[in-house]
Amino acid sequence: MAQVVIAGCGYVGNALARMLIADGHEVFGIRRNPAGLAKGVKAIRGDLADPKSLGPAPQRVEYAVFMVGADESTEKAYRRAYLDGLAGLLEWLANEGQRPKRIVMTSSTSVYGQRRGEPIDEDSPTHPTQFRGETLLASERLLAASGFSTVVVRLGGIYGPERTSLIDRALAGELKLRETEHFTNRIHRDDAAGLVRHLLFHPSPDPLYLGVDSESAEESKLHAWIAKELGVSEPELETATGADDASGGRGQRQAAGSKRCSNRRARESGYRFRYPSYREGYGALIRARRTKD
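Below the sequence we write its predicted structure tokens.
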């Protein structure tokens, strides 16, 4: 049994915690509000950006996971979560005399600025075009310079239970089809958590992995498939006057962010995806909704 600290124990972090507890590990979760922790997680109340607020560490922190989210989509909030928060975690560990065997950090595929459907893997150049990707990349570099054994997992768009916006929009008739090809990259919550668990204890992991499922989904095909599975009308083709563009105005949406990310390295590490594509993932969510209704 290992002692594992999860810093930022939220949507994916709680799913990871439940897996680790089921495996027999002792899990501690750092949150400002411990009421949101999964059952069985031992609370460490405090603010990562203020390490003095965290109090004493567990007796032996063998593994740590940095899995935070920004409170809002502003540059200030991102810097506080990913830079100040990580610096605070590292300071807290040092002050408490703790040296984990490994720290795993979740980042994002937003560090890649490619947008023309290019194939992306861990060796592809990073060209973030917005502060989100720039901040995450800076946080990755801070972790790499920490002196610990570290692994970074760049996650795609996370969906799963309680994150079913595409299904909700399809039922409301709000999904649209693009006129241009646009690739998206997703991962089910349980695979995001499962991959982190796998890499946390891997005997010799690489320092970087892409956390996406096995198929980059062309957005219009994804939307049409969800509508068909739900038994609702196929989404209409968006018009130049009816779509929101990347800047928030009206007009045909731009293809910013269109890329095809590969999970080959994750699969070659031995991880087996529970939901290898959107069909398995969204299919399970749709079946669960029908059972609930």
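Confidence is low (pLDDT under 50) at residues 241-255.
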